[in-house]
What we know:
With 378 residues, this protein is mostly helical. The chain has helices at residues 35-56, 61-79, 86-93, 104-120, 128-138, 174-189, 196-210, 217-231, 243-248, 250-263, 266-302, 309-318, 327-334, 338-350, 369-373; strands spanning 3-4, 7-12, 19-24, 324-326, 355-358, 365-367. Helix 4 packs antiparallel against helix 5 (128-138) and helix 7 (196-210) packs across helix 11. It is elongated and about 75 Å long.
Amino acid sequence: xxxxxxxxxxxxxxxxxxxxxxxxxxxxxxxxxxxxxxxxxxxxxxxxxxxxxxxxxxxxxxxxxxxxxxxxxxxxxxxxxxxxxxxxxxxxxxxxxxxxxxxxxxxxxxxxxxxxxxxxxxxxxxxxxxxxxxxxxxxxxxxxxxxxxxxxxxxxxxxxxxxxxxxxxxxxxxxxxxxxxxxxxxxxxxxxxxxxxxxxxxxxxxxxxxxxxxxxxxxxxxxxxxxxxxxxxxxxxxxxxxxxxxxxxxxxxxxxxxxxxxxxxxxxxxxxxxxxxxxxxxxxxxxxxxxxxxxxxxxxxxxxxxxxxxxxxxxxxxxxxxxxxxxxxxxxxxxxxxxxxxxxxxxxxxxxxxxxxxxxxxxxxxxxxxxxxxxxxx
Length: 378
């Protein structure tokens, strides 16, 4: 039986069906805090504090949070093989459905799961029950919809390969699953002197090693990071998502995760994770500041359009949550004719605030592209 400080590989099954699965040890785990680890913990906390300060000063922080969640949904889904992009999501929300991959619904489900989770934790503790509820939302009517949404697995699964014998990793067997999950939940709420950032790194890693669902473990494990930080008031708003960093460094992400079970090296993953927090928080700080600058520039442009002042400002502010707008939207919001709505949109395009996104429909759709571009490419 091969073992290390993170857990052990145990024999399961018998005869031709015999295999070895990894059962992680109970958390907390003894961590070696060398100079690099101490530095990264300190820097990660510093950048999170700065992110909190900057987003608190935004005029519309809720909109920023919502758009950032959309970006996270797209990237986290792409890590699992989804072809749809952030741009596809924006087009789908605007009603442009042609030439958009069918799996855009997986991104839409992820957004629903984020919204559901953050709404629930206002009055309900982060727990195994809530994780199952979020999983049920995540897996509705998409790939994996027949793999017991909202229920922990009752059969063995594996990662990589076409069979358990060719797999790269086999999570705990079903008879070990319950105690692993119970420990994970206990560790979530355990009061100890472990840095919360180190703790959430371990929670994410152990969740992925336990792999409690038949599908959707990667996406839910990444969502768990933001949920945990929110419940511990590390961030006042959910503005830290690591999927972009994980996707950009996908080989390192998988390698450091794998080395926890293979070598017992949790420290390398924690350092990778903390580096991700620093880089992601720094990028989010830049985005939030750039949004503030963009808004100030656009408000000057809007002031040159004399009519429809307050209602036009309302339409503009709504672009931070849904960065597309149509003639029909203008007609309903301002109670004007189609012709007048068209002239207003022409003015907004003339100032450079909006661009024409889709002209094939009678109801033309316009996009706040400069805002979208601040969140980076797909």
